[in-house]
Amino acid sequence: MRADQLKVLEARGIVVPPYADYIKPEWKSNPALALDAQPTMITSQNVGIPAYLANLLDPKTIRVLTVPMKAAEICGEQKKGTWTTVTTQFPVVESTGSVSSYGDFSEDGGVGTNYNWVPRQSYHWQTITRYGDRETEMFGLASINYVSDLNYSSALLMGKFMNQTYLFGVQGLDNYGILNDSSLITPVAPIIKEATGTTWAVATAVEIFNDVMLLYTTLQTQLNGMIDRDTKMTLILSPIIEPYMGKVTKYTLASVRQAIKENWPNLKIVTVPEFNTAAGELLQLWVDELEGDKTGFCAFTEKMRAGRVIPELSSFKQKKVAGSWGCIVKRPIAIAQMLGA
Q: CA dihedral defined by 164, 168, 173, 174, rounded to 10 degrees?
């Protein structure tokens, strides 16, 4: 475009940018001088932008599921002592006495009490939370509250171990659990099923109900009639066999669960994963309390005691402590067991 043509365009308000350039007319017939073609690329091919720019970090984290902690649901839990308490003695008292034929001047007969002391030892454990300044800020780049997640992990870990002591106690100490207290009475065997075997997987609804009835009659025998069908009781079994309580009878279509509720209106059912043992499925039937005293309870010294947050050069740490007595079974005679369902 000639200079005079540019001036005409400028007069009409059309301005060509100063960086624009045009091929001279004499060059148009020479293909070797083409400036709009490039035979090869100097840079590497790509998708246009770094991939991370098209990536979304969801701020909602997904926690890995863990087995539920349900030991305390069986009989509740109580605080006994503090983290400085090493041993405890639980008194057991028995009334004694005798009577004699009456006589105006007779002084025969009398009453008394006999005491036993049942010892238990506490067990304390710890864990430490550590986090650095740089790693905390780096997790912050991903919108993750790292310190909060560490504290959650420590609370979960302490609770998990507490649950284990409630169920199994602590080896080497006078500290026992719901599943291994030496005072528990030997489990009874389930009834033999029509389909052979003793497990609920092959049992009919009536056979499953009869196993629960066997536990109840066993309790009646142990307690010599101190309970009845209206007594508050707790049936504990694993979540593996709990679904079989939904089996229905052939004629009435009533489930095992409905039949249990009708026969023992104050019976509560609790599922505990650890009742699926290596020796088979375990069931326990607890009388919740007799004469105002609980049959047993889980006991702790400290649920979780957090220490000081200690600052270091570029990090922090904190110790957390807890303690347990295991499960205190006060009246093992008020517990019936069945193994092999």
A: 120
